[in-house]
Specification:
- The chain has 397 residues and is an all-beta fold.
- The protein has 4 domains: 2-99, Immunoglobulin-like (Sandwich), CATH 2.60.40; 105-208, Immunoglobulins (Immunoglobulin-like, Sandwich); 212-287, Immunoglobulin-like (Sandwich); 295-371, Immunoglobulin-like (Sandwich), CATH 2.60.40.
- The longest helix has 7 residues, at 53-59.
- The protein is built from 1 helix and 34 strands.
- It has one helix at residues 53-59, and strands spanning 8-11, 17-22, 33-38, 41-47, 50-51, 64-70, 81-87, 93-99, 105-107, 110-116, 120-127, 135-141, 144-151, 153-154, 167-173, 184-190, 198-202, 212-213, 216-219, 222-226, 228-229, 236-243, 246-254, 258-262, 275-279, 282-283, 286-287, 296-303, 308-315, 323-329, 332-339, 344-348, 361-365, 370-371.
Length: 397
């Protein structure tokens, strides 16, 4: 019988609010209004209009009798408080008991929560002064910064009604170093701030580490590819690309999300070993294109006023070593020099046995890797070259 069916259900704590449903079986076309009081103080009034499939199956109709409401965040200080929820039209009490309130931490107008999930750390961060904007935070373990992230994933733990305000969540995989059976301290901090906003001590289950699959390709100084965390959904982990002790790029990788990022800024830094990639401490396979050309990253420029060509060429797959570089003008080799350990080199066209004008310049390494200008267009050099001092001279740094 209809009278035996429940007419409401309420969860008093969804970390920052309450959720549930309320229905009047005799008036399925009507939405019930509810008043919420905490510690005897009215804190919210809400209307049960959200769709609930369970209510639809139980009573029919469209099932739009659910509710999710945000309570004032200042209530969440870790202290349980009496909560009362009643219908505004009839005074029927749906809930009247002591409810738990999570201990939220604050920094200015920003509040957030971090907790242990099945595969890693989960939580949310929101700035009440700008609730539509994502917040950048840092995650630390045992006093060491693990990675930076932006809390921009959709989350039900922060039940704003709809739209971008729901996108303040994050989910990060357990760091490999945390899966040693010992207790570790995890801190969540606002980007650039020394003080922890949330600090928790956890002992992650050794068997909850993620298994990643996939590989990455390096080409033209960029790294690309897709990595998948088995059964981990939107979880993410830190990806480090480096050479020896030098960290070139630190990326925040989400499972299934395409990676496409530069290895360097304006030009390479000094390398002390071949390029490697590690995802949360585990090696990731690196490819350098079908023909191996991706192992080189290079660029050069011609200064028309002086006739000087300056450039650099770095072999990402090999150990640091001087490299012989040849300058080719209109298909003919005219000068040779040596790029030092950091890959830099310099040619002076005044030393080359050529006459202006010429149409194309390129440089070739000892491994036959061709280094053209990025636009790959012809170089129309119309000026008179300075008088050649010593034709065929080889410059060596």
């Amino acid at each position: 019988m209809a009278d035996d069916k429940p007419r409401h259900s309420l969860n008093p704590n969804t970390e920052v609010g309450l959720s549930g449903w309320a229905v009047d079986p005799a008036h399925l076309d009507r939405s019930i209004s509810l008043a919420v009081a905490v510690d005897g103080r009215a804190v919210a009034t809400l209307l049960a209009t959200r769709p609930r499939n369970g209510v639809k199956k139980l009573y029919g109709g469209d099932g739009r009798h659910g509710f999710v409401s945000v309570l004032p965040l200042e209530l969440y200080d870790g202290v349980a408080k009496p909560m009362r929820v009643e219908r505004t039209d009839t005074g029927e009490v749906l809930f009247d008991a002591v409810a738990p309130f999570a201990d939220l931490r604050w920094s200015g107008t920003v509040s957030g929560l971090m907790r242990a999930g099945k595969k890693g750390l989960e939580g949310w961060v929101v700035d009440r002064a700008d609730p539509d904007a994502p917040v950048a935070v840092e995650v630390w373990m045992d006093g060491r910064r693990l990675f930076d992230l932006v809390a921009d994933q959709e989350t039900d733990a922060l039940p704003y009604p709809e739209g971008p305000r729901r996108r303040h969540g994050f989910a990060v995989a357990w760091p490999g170093a945390a899966l040693d059976g010992a207790e570790h301290r995890f801190d969540m901090r606002l980007a650039g701030q020394a003080e922890a906003m949330v600090a928790i001590a956890l002992r992650p289950d050794v068997g909850t580490g993620l298994s990643w699959a996939g590989d990455l390709t390096v080409q033209d100084g960029r790294v690309s590819g897709v990595l998948l965390a088995e059964g981990a959904g939107s979880f993410a982990a830190p990806l480090l690309l480096g050479a020896g002790e030098t960290v070139l790029t630190r990326l925040w990788v989400r499972s299934g999300q395409r990676i496409d990022a530069p290895l360097f800024g304006d030009r390479p830094t000094a390398l002390d070993g071949p390029l490697t990639a590690t995802l949360d401490g585990r090696d990731v396979a690196l490819g350098f294109g079908a023909d191996g050309s991706g192992r080189w990253i290079a660029d050069w420029r011609l200064e028309p006023a002086t006739g000087v060509v300056e450039g650099w060429a770095v072999d990402l797959a090999g150990p640091p070593a001087p490299r012989e570089i040849t300058l080719v003008v209109d298909g003919a080799s005219v000068l040779t020099t040596v790029a030092g350990l950091e890959g830099g080199y310099r040619f002076d066209l005044a030393d080359a046995p050529i006459r202006a004008p010429f149409s194309e310049i390129e440089t070739i390494s000892a491994l036959k890797a061709r280094h053209r200008r990025q636009n790959r267009g012809p170089v129309d050099h119309q000026r008179d070259l300075p008088r050649r001092r010593r034709p065929g001279q080889i410059d060596r740094p």
